[in-house]
Write a structure and sequence with these properties.
10 helices; CheY-like_superfamily; Rossmann fold; phosphoprotein
Length: 221
């Protein structure tokens, strides 16, 4: 059970967007906006000075001086909090670039409060999130692309992959499949190795690209 609020730092060059997000997130007691930055460069300077106290970073993509992708690249050498990309653009190319540079989540700015809070909580627990509209954008782009099938995933690994793609954390997967958390953790590591990806977010993208993910196949309780 969550006992302390998740600290979130907002990075967006539009004051109205930051104010709107702060007001929206204030409606949920599980979230605390702990800081704001006016663009990527301001955030990076603040972070390097040790003045960012956050569990999750909400990061805009298109900003002056230093954009969201640039921030992700700069943060690669640090043990930084997970970044949730927020954008008005339903652009799978930007999504792929963000994921390549270790973004842990990607959502459109018109996401509901429930979606946004769920995404923040997922990232704070070591999970990932990819909004359904963006999953559909990726699938639409990949329909005309011929990709090799991944060999070697067992039935159980495919089942776990469906849950990873749906945004479940390891503890949630363990509870749903009635397995020990350590068993699931080992299985996830094996899945990442077989897919030749670095993390759960990249695994989600790879699964969508290869046609391995279908929401209808997500195991139910």
């Amino acid at each position: 059970m969550q006992t302390t609020a998740i600290k979130v730092h907002l990075v967006d060059d539009q004051h109205l967007v930051r104010a709107g997000l702060a007001s929206l997130l204030a409606l949920d007691k599980r979230i605390q906006v702990s800081g704001e930055s006016v663009d990527g460069q301001a955030f990076l300077e603040c972070y390097q000075q040790g003045n960012v106290d956050a569990d999750v970073i909400l990061l805009d993509v298109r900003m002056p001086r230093l954009d969201g992708i640039g921030v992700l690249q700069a943060l690669a050498k640090y043990h930084a909090p997970p970044c949730l990309i927020l954008t008005t653009f339903n652009d799978s190319d930007i999504l792929f670039r963000a994921i390549e540079h270790n973004a842990k989540g990607f959502m459109l700015k018109d996401a509901s409060l429930e979606e946004l809070v769920a995404g923040i909580i997922a990232l704070s627990q070591g999970g990932s999130v990819l909004q359904q509209a963006l999953k559909e954008a990726v699938m639409a782009k990949q329909r005309s692309v011929v990709t090799p099938q991944v060999q070697g995933l067992t039935a159980r690994e495919q089942q776990i992959l469906q849950l990873i793609c749906a945004g479940y954390a390891n503890k949630e997967i363990a509870a749903k499949l009635h397995k020990a958390p350590g068993t699931i953790r080992n299985a996830v590591s094996t899945i990442l190795a077989k897919l030749e990806v670095r993390d759960r977010t990249q695994a989600t993208i790879k699964a969508i690209e290869l046609g391995l993910y279908c929401a209808a196949n997500t195991p139910s309780d």
